[in-house]
Amino acid sequence: MKNLQIHITGKVHKVGFRYFVKQMAERLEISGSVKYSPDHSILISASGNDKSLDQFIGFCRLGCIGSDVKNISLSEAIFPQNQSFEIINETQAYPGNNNIKNL
Q1: Tens digits of per-residue pLDDT, 28-39?
Q2: For the whole model, what pTM was predicted?
Q3: Counting C-beta atoms within 10 Å of the first and last residue's C-beta, which end of the chain has fewer, N or C?
């Protein structure tokens, strides 16, 4: 089992990219998570076998309809193993980024 941190830049915000990533991860039996970073790029934590991760990275390079992937950077990482693949919403990823207005 290999763990990768994947950082994707380009037109990947508000085009369904996180949902596309989740579908591909589930299809390839990859566990982990995907979230937006504050600069609207995509951050992925992915765990799987080498073959599945290679295919997953290929899908990420292609992107979904409406996206335009400019760059992908990869690094091996250590993180807790998930049993599934999840989308982390912005409020979960950045608790201090709270746009809720106090009444």
Answers
A1: 999 999 999 999
A2: 0.85
A3: C
